[in-house]
UniProtKB/TrEMBL annotation:
The organism of origin for this protein: Candidatus Limivivens intestinipullorum
A GO molecular-function descriptor: alpha-galactosidase activity
Pfam families given in the database record: Glyco_hydro_36C, Glyco_hydro_36N, Melibiase
PANTHER family associated with the record: ALPHA-GALACTOSIDASE C-RELATED, GLYCOSIDASE FAMILY 31
Taxonomic classification: Bacteria, Bacillati, Bacillota, Clostridia, Lachnospirales
Binding site for substrate: 197, 364-365, 441, 474-478, 524, 546
Protein family (similarity comment): Belongs to the glycosyl hydrolase.
Name of this chain's protein: Alpha-galactosidase
Keywords: Glycosidase, Hydrolase
Family annotation (InterPro entries): Aldolase_TIM, Alpga-gal_N_sf, Alpha-glycosidase_related, GH, Glyco_hydro_27/36_CS, Glyco_hydro_36, Glyco_hydro_36_C, Glyco_hydro_36_N
Ranges in a coiled coil: none
Record-listed E.C. numbers: 3.2.1.22
Entry keyword annotation includes Membrane: no
């Protein structure tokens, strides 16, 4: 619900348990009042500290500078005296960079407007309200609309900004962030996700100091290294307690997420497109829409934040027809064969897999052009009939005869220098004339800022998809952007390339899922470099990491599931020694870890032992038994091996709280230890639950815990069912 107190000029945006307060100051400035637990009063202007020095400008005409430098603002301007991070900076044709963001009016509407060309959360009119605050910089004619959408059933709100040029001259947007939150510091700690290839999204936490601390990417993708997520938490915040202010960007390109602690101990938290290398020329009459930030406040620790994001994204972001369905259990040939395969090998794998209950064969990289290594043919999207004799249609038909679906890998944004496409259209690659293009994995990035490039690649890929019965596509992106230049953009628009590139990627993904509505799309980027909320708008699942080792995956999946629904995490069972880290883990553990995600296999199933094949059958049964619960339930993190070094544990609880599943893995075994009482979470304290042969109240299981005996041997996992007593 959105309330406006006309007398006090206060907006209050309420969700079930939270309020967000905004005030108009001096009829000119849009000030920030409050974000936190729900408030009943609307007369909360005292939170502006208007009567404290340096006063508001109207009361103190000779001193606007220090007001601007300390007031809590909703969308801070540049160049007028607020020296903290600004949210927007435009350069006029005269070369000046200042702007004054002054309040003009507001509108409250039911529902949530779509954001032009961008992924965004969506909602029915009855589920969401949107506040639009209109501001203007009169000298430049820049109109700014601040958008706040409030999801009533969820403690989440989204923010985005529209800049319009209502002046008579063009101006250049040099920076335009999507959200800003000013607050008093409360000894906040900053949480973010960091990593590398094979080590994506590890949770890191550090005290917030004075100055600016940020996480960012200007690699042209959300990246392996840093992640468009930032949370400020009060000291000692745990899974169950503490206050959490979180921002997550619904965008897959360059970003900055920053917290700045200033001289007066206030904190400015910001998120948006990274300004480095960014400029956008806005002609009179044109507008620019920023990607949105999803904000969550939790007064009940990190667990509540996580579950709010999971619900928000499951109910209001992901659109796939597969969202609430069990995904077919797939087998992917990448780790089985790499580039060395033909249709015979694939069919051998499919035959064995189908006998064990696997439901879809995915043919990975290497089926097109003349690609037998990673050094050619990206861009030549037609089947290599030397390798796949009889072509895709025949292969898909033969796979189908085994009772399985068929899927393929593509990497549409790329071109190999050794390809017909590059020889025909060398200008389609992103490049700076006169400079060597930075090579990475022997490939160049196509200029997806250009419609003819996107359309040209799309037509080739659509033709492939129409040529055979293809149910699934893995869309990969295996390098980062560099030597940024577009042949299609004039000199003063080159700074638009990275964002226009993302808009091109989104446009093509939208076209793909519109033209092929039944297609199951999985995004991927050299493992998990584009696991973000932007991509989830197009695909219900994203490959989490190229590291498939079950123990490494504990940390990767823990970090990913901190924000994203578990069923969106691409997770497969692979062979040992693991191809990335060389570790041996029990086959059962590999299956249990992959069950938290989409579940599938990435190995040569024809080479498994009889015992391992028997295990596959058991795992397939477990998937069918538990996937509805895992996909739709509430996720609780009980313990983190990254923190305690010896065991990892999570639970999924059905929304009705009648059923739950507990996962426990002992990483390294230790000598001479006692059993551990593991406290469960999320159950109904008043209900009685069966655990094995025994029955307990939910309160006993949550307060005293269940007993976990130490096991002999490393990396042993357990799945334990907890069911309301009397439920079948
Ligand atoms: C990336 C993906 C892998 C695989 C290879 C193929 O690294 O993450 O799963 O598809 O590309 O080249």
């Amino acid at each position: 619900m959105i309330r406006f107190d006309e007398k006090n000029k206060v907006f209050l945006l309420d969700t079930e348990n939270t309020s967000y307060g905004i005030a108009v100051v001096d009829d000119r400035y849009v000030g920030h009042l409050y974000y936190g637990k729900k408030l009943r009063d609307t007369d909360i202007r005292y939170l502006l500290r208007e009567d404290e020095a340096p006063f508001t400008p109207a009361a103190n005409k000779r001193e606007t500078g220090s007001f601007l430098d300390c007031a809590h603002m909703e969308y801070p301007e540049t160049g007028m005296g607020d020296y903290r991070e600004s949210a927007v900076c435009i350069r006029s044709m005269s070369g000046h960079r200042a702007s004054e963001i002054r309040y003009e009016g507001y509108e409250i509407i039911q529902g949530k407007p779509a954001l032009e060309g961008l992924p965004a959360t969506w909602a029915q009119d009855s589920q969401c309200g949107t506040l639009k605050i209109f501001c203007r910089d009169s000298l430049s004619g820049m109109k700014i609309t601040l958008l706040y959408s409030v999801f009533e059933g969820l403690d989440a709100l989204t923010r985005s900004v529209i800049i319009e040029n209502e002046g008579t001259e063009p101006f250049y947007i040099e920076k335009v962030l999507s959200a800003c939150l000013d607050m008093d510091d409360r000894d906040f700690e900053m949480m973010s996700l960091a990593g590398s290839w094979g080590r994506e999204r590890r949770i890191q936490r550090r005290p917030l100091g004075y100055g600016r601390q940020n996480v960012a990417s200007f690699r042209g993708e959300s990246s392996h290294q840093e992640h468009p997520f930032l949370a400020l938490v009060t000291p000692g915040t745990t899974q169950e307690s503490g206050e959490v202010y979180a921002m997550n960007f619904v965008y897959s390109g360059n970003f900055i997420a920053q917290a700045e602690k200033s001289q007066f101990d206030s904190v400015r938290m910001t998120m948006g497109i990274h300004p480095e290398g960014f400029t956008w020329k806005l002609e009179p009459g044109e507008r620019f829409t920023t990607p949105e930030v999803a904000m969550v406040y939790s007064a009940e620790g990190l667990g509540k934040m996580t579950r709010t994001y999971h619900d928000l994204y499951r109910e209001h972001l992901i659109r796939s027809p597969y969202l609430h369905k069990k995904r077919p259990i797939l087998i992917n040939n990448w780790e089985a064969t790499y580039f060395d395969f033909d249709e015979k090998k694939l069919l051998e794998i499919a035959k064995e897999a189908s006998e064990l209950g696997i439901e879809m064969l995915v043919m990975d990289d290497g089926w097109f052009g003349k690609r037998n290594l990673d050094d050619s043919s990206l861009g030549d999207w037609y089947v290599n009939e030397g390798k796949i004799k009889g072509g895709l249609r025949k292969l898909a038909e033969n796979v189908k005869k085994l009772g399985m679906k068929f899927g393929i890998w593509i990497e549409p944004e790329m071109v190999s220098p050794d390809s017909e496409l590059y020889r025909k259209h060398p200008d389609w690659a992103i490049q700076i004339p006169g400079r060597d293009i930075t090579q990475s994995r022997a490939q160049y990035v196509l200029d997806f800022s250009r419609n003819e490039v996107v359309d040209g690649v799309y037509e080739m890929i659509a033709k492939v998809l129409r040529s055979a019965d293809i149910s699934y596509v893995k869309w990969d992106m295996n390098r980062q952007l560099a030597t940024l230049g577009s042949y299609a953009l004039p000199a003063d628009r080159q700074g638009e390339l990275s964002h226009r590139y993302m808009l091109g990627v989104y446009r093509m993904q939208e076209r793909l899922i519109t033209d092929f509505p039944e297609l199951l799309l999985e995004n991927c980027s050299g493992g998990g470099a584009r696991f973000d909320a932007g991509m989830l708008y197009y695909s219900p699942q994203i490959w989490c990491s190229d590291d498939t080792d079950a123990i490494e995956r504990l940390a990767i999946q823990e970090g990913t599931a901190l924000v994203y629904p578990v069923a969106s995490m691409g997770a497969h069972v692979s062979v040992c020694p693991n191809h990335t880290v060389g570790r041996n883990t029990p086959f059962e553990t590999r299956g249990d870890v992959a069950l938290l995600g989409t579940f599938g296999y990435e190995l040569d199933i024809t080479k498994l032992s009889v015992e391992e094949k028997a295990q596959v059958k058991i795992q397939v049964e477990k998937y069918h038994k538990y996937n509805d619960l895992i996909r739709e339930g509430d996720y609780y993190r009980l313990a983190s091996a990254s923190e305690n070094g010896s065991y990892d544990s999570w639970m999924i609880v059905e929304k009705s709280r009648r059923k739950a599943l507990l996962f426990y893995v002992q990483t390294l075994a230790r000598a001479n230890t006692k059993s551990r009482f593991l406290r469960l979470a999320g159950l109904d304290p008043e209900k009685r639950y069966s655990v094995g042969e025994k029955e307990y109240f939910g309160s006993t299981l949550m307060q005293a815990g269940i007993r976990i005996l130490p096991e002999s041997g490393d990396f042993k996992s357990r799945l334990i069912e907890i069911t309301e007593a009397g439920t079948p």
